[in-house]
Amino acid sequence: MTMPGAFEPSPVANYLPTTAIIEEAENFTARDRYFRLSLERPLGHRPGQFVMVSVFGLGEAPISISNPPGDAPTLEMVIRNAGSLTQVLHSYGPGDAIGLRGPYGHGFDLHDFLGRDVLFICGGLGLAPLRSLIRAVIDRRGEFGRVMVISGCRTPAEEIYRPDLTAWAERGDVDIVRLVDNAANMPWKGRVGLVTEPIAGLKLDPAETVVAMCGPPVMYKFVLLELAGAGINGDRVFVDLERRMRCGVGKCGHCQINDIYCCQDGPVFRFSEIAHLKEAFL
Amino acid sequence: MISYLADERRVIQWIRHLAAETPVFFPMPHGKVNFRFERVDEASELQFARYRPTIIAPNSFLTPTKEEIFKYQRVGPGRYELTPAVETTFQILAGVRPCDLKAIKLMDDVFADGERDPYYFQRRTNTSLIGYACPAPCDEMAYCESAGSLDWRDGVDVMLTPVGDRMLIQAYTERGEALTASGDFDPCDDPDAELQRHLDERPKPFGRQLHAPVDELPAILERHWDSPLWDQHVERCFSCGTCNLVCPTCYCFDVKDVSALDGSSGSRTRQWDACMLTTFATVAGGHNFRADPAARQRHRVKRKFQYLNERYDSGAFCVGCARCGRQCTTGIDIFDIVNDIVDHDRAAAGGAS
After folding, report:
1. Inter-chain contact A256–B307, Cβ cutoff 8 Å?
2. Whole-angstrom Cα Rg for chain A
3. Is cis: bond before A103, omega within 30 of 0?
4. pLDDT at residue B230 above 90?
5. What is the ipTM of this complex?
């Protein structure tokens, strides 16, 4: 039966990954592996966005983009071994291919930071997404006031992007504070303590400071309290939240935080816009 | 719009005629009390009078429980050829009640939002809906009038409205006109009068009634985030997810690969998921943003009456079919949860004034 308005088959594009080749891979820690991939064309992303990474047979996982926007057809990311898909990715090295779709989500807008003092607060793997913004800021260093990075992790062995942190510190125009919760009898030149502790010592100018933060779910409320104590309001704080997206396009329901979708409305939010959401933080 | 009149016998004859050419699915008795949408064949006993909402709602014909979205085939080391699933079989869902018609319209809104979902719409555009207006509540559980779905027509191709011992047959779309052209129907000059008669014959009120208008529920629910009622109503809950699976407006899914044993080929699929299941909101590393069953129950209730209607600027996503309450192993009913919250709200307001 032919019906008016019947569907005409057409190429179906959504959810189809493209192939990307791993050019470089390196274990940052026992459970975090760094990848640099070459793409057919630049991702066209904003800092803070994410991609869906595929291994056919195992499925997909949302992974943060670590490199700054630009013209290079490159993708950098750090993947934690946390499940069957990421376990297999940890066995991948140069020359191996993975599936990729994206970028997805609402990233950071550099205009929110231009001309301001910028403070980055990174907990553990939270440095991976924030690096995309830190690099973008440092690339245009002259257009910002103070640039400060607080990067904390559990032990010295868990620190990621160590060469970057060292290089940024050596520039002289970026304040880097590296901390561990516990030095665990390992060599460690940085501080011992939580990422909240250095905030007061930075003597932030509340009128000039903008904050970007990302870390484990438990970190947010303590950092937000400390920032409030330093006089920094929620409209100057940008948080990058983690949820386990399945689709990336606002359909599958998994990343819903109360009435918003982390994959589309986030994962980067101005804190004052989500402060009322009861399920945003632990 | 073209309108006809016919008795039920001729309407059923017409549906059989359609089924001879096209797959037609109709709610048919299954066991003693349950119904399910089954394909009409020559042996099918078609009738409208006896009905209870099918256990699984007809939206499963548009978003199947497990749906292939593409096939993958290894063509070299790490290299795969991807073939998107194309589904162009034309199907007719007939005897769809207004609650389910509204649910399908809401799914149209959901899957058109942002990136229009090609897998949903290739099925949806190949599906014709023949609706049937309920002359009486299907059982003592339904609250479709109160939820705002009883008079739903939007999205339907043909609507059948019982009037006395006849039916008003109305073609709402071009496709509906093409479908009804093959019926042995009488012309109807005054469909408005027939519709009015249908309304007059209907019991009032129609089914159970929520204790507040649905458009007031978002504000009321917002005031009771911390209510002890959430804990009270979840005490019997097993977090089994049945309420999600039978809900015509639950569409959350997981993405899973189904692989051949040697890993060289397979399918990427979308499979129904349920926000009442324990790990639905768990992220890598094990943090669960709704670990408490009461938080999951509250999320489900607020999705149906607040979050989604606000997001899509639509009516309530709960259509009042009452499937979740009917199927719940321990008799938890979203109708009771909402009414308890409303009663509590009213009592609190009364006490304050």
Report:
1. yes
2. 20
3. yes
4. yes
5. 0.87
Confidence of residue A6 (pLDDT cuts 50, 70, 90): very low
Q: Please say if the pLDDT value at position A10 is more than 50.
A: no
Three-state SS for A261? strand
Using CA atoms, how far residue B346 sits from A136, B188, B224, B333, B341, in Å, is 53, 48, 12, 20, 9
**From A5, A16, A19, residue closest to B70, measured CB to CB:** A16
Q: Is A264 on the interface with B (CB under 8 A)?
A: yes
Name the closest residue on chain A to residue B70, using Cα atoms: A16
CB–CB of B285 and A264 under 8 A? no
Answer whether residue B166 shows pLDDT above 90: yes
Q: Could you give the angle at which helices B334-352 and B293-302 cross, rounded to 10 degrees?
A: 90
- The 10 Å CB-count burial string (b at 16+, else e) for B262-298 is eeeebbbbbebbbbbbeebbbbbeebbbbeebbbbbb
Mean pLDDT to the nearest integer, A72-90: 94
The SS3 call for residue B13 is: helix
The model's pLDDT over A175-187, given as tens digits with 9 standing for 90+, comes to: 999 999 999 899 9
The mean of the pLDDT values for chain A is 91
**Domains, chain A, ranges and CATH?**
11-104 (2.40.30.10), 110-240 (3.40.50.80)
Interface of A with B in 58-77 (CB under 8 A): 58-61
Q: Where are the beta strands (DSSP E) in B13-124?
A: 24-30, 34-39, 66-76, 79-84, 91-96
CA distance A228 to chain B (A): 24
- Enter the DSSP assignment of B4: E
Q: Which residues of A touch B115 (CB under 8 A)?
A: 14, 249-250
